[in-house]
Design goal:
Largest sheet: 6 strands, mixed
Order of helices and strands: EEEHEHEHHE
Shape: globular
CATH class: Alpha Beta
CATH architecture: 2-Layer Sandwich
Distance between the termini: 26 Å
Oligomer: single chain
Radius of gyration: 13 Å
Structural class: alpha/beta
Number of domains: 1
Number of strands: 6
CATH topology: Nucleotidyltransferase, domain 5
Strand content: 15-25%
Amino acid sequence: MERFVTAFASEDGETLIDRHFGDSGFYSIYEISPLETVFKKAVENLTSVEEGVHADPGKAKGVAGLLREYGVQVVVSKVFGPNIQKIKQHFVCVMVSGESVQDSIVTVLENFDTITIQWKKGETRDPVDLK
């Protein structure tokens, strides 16, 4: 059975941020499958330094590197910036409209097949807009 390590852009572990995914101070990481959802840990985003230019490629590289250390495959946020073009090569980027992490987990589960299809596409995957 497929399972995905999923990072949610949340400062407090409960509510999704209203800024770009890469601007989150923390990521709540869960392992999600159709059978269970397990909270793994909250990871502080120490890589997101001041951008030299908008959509700084160094910022995307830093965030992607951090999340890959934890085996993340899916990233969830209300907002993604222009760097989505870079990070979608490494992750399935899921855009949601819900406010809470728990509601977003339900949305991921309801769309698990779509996310699985995008994951299997590899670097040619498309963002998944569930708004």
